[in-house]
Amino acid sequence: MSSSEAIRTENPAGRLAAMAGAGEVDVVILGAGINGAGLFRDLCAQGVSCLIVDKADFGSGTSAAPSRLIHGGLKYLETGEFRLVAQSTLERNLLLKNAPHYVSPLPTVIPIFSWSKGMLAALRTLFGSTSAPRSRGAVLIKIGLMIYDFYGSRNQVMPRHRMVGRRQALSEMPALAPSIVATGTYYDAKISHPERLVLELILDGLQANEASASANYTALAKSADGVLTFQPENGAAFSVRPKLVVNAAGPWIDDVNDSLGAPSKMIGGTKGSHILLKHDELVKNLAGRMLYFEADDGRICLVYDYLGLALVGSTDIKADNPDAVRCEPDEVEYLLDSVRTLLPGMAFERDQIVYAYSG
Predict the structure, then answer these.
(1) Which domain holds residue 205?
(2) Could you say which of 259, 281, 303 is where a domain stops?
(3) What is the CATH number of the domain that holds 98?
């Protein structure tokens, strides 16, 4: 069944009415981002009746504002999170197989500016340090990419990494800063429309289980005695008594817990901002590759061709209110400066920006 056919035939209002009339459901999932949608699909396929609810549109929160990468977590090797990398690379490979209409391989080039930097910081992580190296040399990157290839070998669908010296690197990407000593190229993946993937997961769940339902633009109005009452933006309030409630609200987890009468302080929020540039010269030079590079402060940044525009990201700044995040002017300048340093022969100006976002 296509997505459009599913939307026409599923009758979401009828499903909600039937569920509210029965008054009971196995699981209520609060938050319809990628985590909530994935859980909804899995539970529905196992015969568990579910209601997934979002206060806005499906996939419109954090899932709509990422770097649009399906990556295996290379950077988490630096902090010793090997199990996370193993799981992430496996899920990346599965998405490449299961969702090729949205997820595709992305050759990723790491410009390298020294041979040996970062080794001492990397050794400290073996003894419990959680701080990443501020600068990473060719030896450290080579070791990291070998480990990354090893973890990505389960259900492997892409080539292994390769390293080249300065002369060949500048021959392949002449726009790079001439001070590089080498580049490392490995493969990750990108996603063209993460919001559509979220929607497809929800539609799959609805198709698999007629006792399940979904509701967007619907707020949790009340929680009392095990009964949840919801208020849609348009329509009458309804109530259900779930056996289990899953809070999948991402950066809004603490807000949702407050509404459930279970106050928490689980989330110390940060935001990541991105800009999209209309820059034909840059897109041509990238030739389908992503540059994954260090900014002057040691933070990892990236730039790649996203649907004909150059996507540049990202910052990482503390943000306590997820409803108020936006890409600030100083973040725009930070991102422009990062690519100016990496690609000194190209001009990067604010008037090339066609869109900026943060999440």
Answers:
(1) 3-64+195-259
(2) 259
(3) 3.30.9.10
What percent of the chain has a predicted confidence (pLDDT) above 70? 92
Handedness of CA 274, 55, 254, 38 (dihedral sign): negative
Beta strand 50-53 pairing with 24-30: parallel
Tens digits of residue pLDDT in 178-230: 999 999 999 999 999 999 999 999 999 999 999 999 999 999 999 999 999 99
Sort strands 270-271 and 317-318 into parallel, antiparallel or unpaired. antiparallel
- Is 264 domain-assigned? no
Q: For 41-89, what is each residue's pLDDT tens digit? A: 999 999 999 999 999 999 999 999 999 999 999 989 888 899 999 999 9
